[in-house]
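User: Is it possible to get a 3D structure for a protein together with its bound compound? The compound here is heme C. I've pasted both below.
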Amino acid sequence: MRWCLVLTTALVSLAACGGGGGEPQAQTQLGDPNPGLSAAQLASFERGRALFEKRFTRAEGHGPDFNTTSCKSCHGIPVTGGSSPLYRNFILAAHDDGSTLTAPFELGQFVQRRFSHTRAIREAVTPDIEVVTQRNAPPMFGMGQLDSITSDDILANADPLDGNADGISGRANLDGTFVSRFGFKAQESSLEEFIRAPIFTHMGITSEPLSFGPQTTGLRVERQVTGDPNLPTIDADGVNDPELSFQELFDLVFYVSQLAPPAPLPLTTQSGRGQTVFGEIGCAQCHIPNIKTTGAPVNAYTDLLLHDMGPGLADGMRQGAALGSEFRTQPLWGLRHHAPYLHDGRADTIRDAIDAHGGEAAPSRTNFLTLPTSDQDALIAFLETR
Ligand code: HEC
Ligand code: HEC
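Assistant: Yes, that's possible. Here is the predicted structure of the complex:
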């Protein structure tokens, strides 16, 4: 099912469906919108970008607890919409009684808010908190394309019991019948939710789901709507909730969903050799170059499925169906633009990231390490063109 929303008001008439094809037009620069938007859509995209870059103030409802003042603080490298340096990592933590994870921080938060306008002392990660891990921001280019892939097209690559005995058992993180696909554990099914959550958690800006909007008659949200996350967020900072208007939320969702995928560079003899090696040593078993879709192919180098990555990467966080050692195959498009790598940013280089692969990916890591140096270099050169 694709994210698709139609908003019609006196002010604006827009139809936004998650992304077009996977291969952007050659002239698309990183941070540009998908080609082919109308003037009204471009205006919404630009308003969304301005909100994404905006540093919210206390008078506008920022806080009381927060990590940053803008989305761009974490998604700004090398351009707006990108990723973050290591020092922007946030801490994700949970109490674990063996069967259930519960939130260790106030307001049911699993994310530590490091700063506060009202507290003198930081919210602490105390020694009794069993699960403590970090997250480093991934880039957002091509989000709409990932959103546009149907659940069936993702499930076509799932092999939960490893029926074909190739050692790779991709599992879907389901939200009802919809394949959840956003976040390092594919824990979130909707881009709108992945915007309403951080704007509240990291910035203290409250909002209501678009489906609550006054324009409900003109608005369709074609996605599985499930569970609590679809409730309004509220806080007590003296500014009326919701602090973000429906129009602003719409523009932010539209912006994120229309950021064009990174454009690949042409292959050379060396990187062409690397492409062959990538397939031969088993990387493409998880990092599927083009997910075949009923729409245009999406060249994201992921299956959007969960894989056991072994004890070295395991962080104990269980999110939906994802176990403590499972992660969603990270897309490799745009890799050259956004070190550091992996869920906690521990890898400074592509080579370090490969070296950290374990679990189901251990054989392909071993294959990589036993390649002749020239083939290792070719593989890295290939990944740097994506
Ligand atoms: C404190 C740093 C930080 C801030 C601020 C932040 N993000 Fe993120 N963002 C992250 C991290 C880290 C992840 C991955 C989280 C995870 O999977 O657990 C992420 C993931 C995402 C994703 C999903 C990407 C994917 O590959 O699935 C979207 C969309 C997103 N953020 C949008 C936003 C928007 C919009 C804002 C502003 C309202 C924002 N973020 C603010 C750190 C941040
Ligand atoms: C079993 C599935 C699987 C295989 C096989 C696999 N990967 Fe991965 N890869 C993943 C997962 C899952 C992640 C995310 C792990 C994390 O964030 O901790 C990842 C992350 C990466 C990253 C970091 C991306 C980023 O933006 O942070 C790179 C680079 C990478 N893989 C390259 C490779 C290469 C090259 C190969 C072949 C040698 C390979 N992978 C084989 C599943 C796999």
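Residues 168, 184, 281-283, 285-287, 307, 309, 313, 327, 329-330, 332, 335, 341-343, 350, 353-354, 357, 360-361, 364-365, 368 surround heme C (ligand 2) (CB under 6 Å). The CA atoms of residues 257 and 370 lie 40 Å apart.
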